[in-house]
Each structure stands twice: as C-alpha cells, then as structure tokens.
C-alpha cells in the first residue's frame, strides 16, 4: 500500500512538472505573439511574415494554454 502511494505521488509530481513546463512554454508563446509582426517558417522552409488573423488565432490558443496550465 505504501509503495502504491509513493508511485501515485511520483506520478502526480511528474504531472505537476509537465504542467509547469507547459505553462512556461505557453507564456513564452504569448510573449512572442504579442509583437505586431510575427515571422515563422513556412511550408517551404522560408521565413515569412504571418497574417494578423493567424497571429490572433495563435494568440487565442496560447492564452487558452496559459489558462489551462498556469494555475
């Protein structure tokens, strides 16, 4: 029973670490997308400026990730 509890505790701690990493990643993504001009690599491997619509969609997804993982 004690061993099972320690395994569950270890799994919970691992999940917390994953959530913390996801939170930090999402925060960096929000900061990156906050700039009005965002460049990304397109399907041809070339750097290209992304549209404002794309930036807004990505920002919404990043903000949702912050809400989900940063508690």
Quick structural gist:
This protein is mainly alpha-helical and 71 residues long.
Structure explained in plain terms:
By secondary structure, the protein is mainly α. Helix content is 70%, strand content 8%. It has a two-stranded antiparallel ribbon with strand order 1-2. α1 packs antiparallel against α2 (52-69). The longest helix has 32 residues, at 2-33. The chain starts with a helix and ends with a helix. The mean pLDDT is 89.
- Portion of residues in beta strands equals 5-15%
Overall, the morphology is elongated
How many helices?
2
Largest sheet: 2 strands, antiparallel
Instruction: Quote the average pLDDT.
Output: 89
Query: How many beta-strand runs?
Result: 2
Low-confidence stretches: none
Q: Kindly provide the radius of gyration, computed on alpha-carbon positions and rounded to a whole number of angstroms.
A: 18 Å
- How are the strands of the largest sheet arranged? 1-2
Order of helices and strands: HEEH
Into which percent range does the helicity of residues fall?
Answer: over 70%
Amino-to-carboxy terminus distance: 30 Å
Helix and strand composition category: mainly alpha
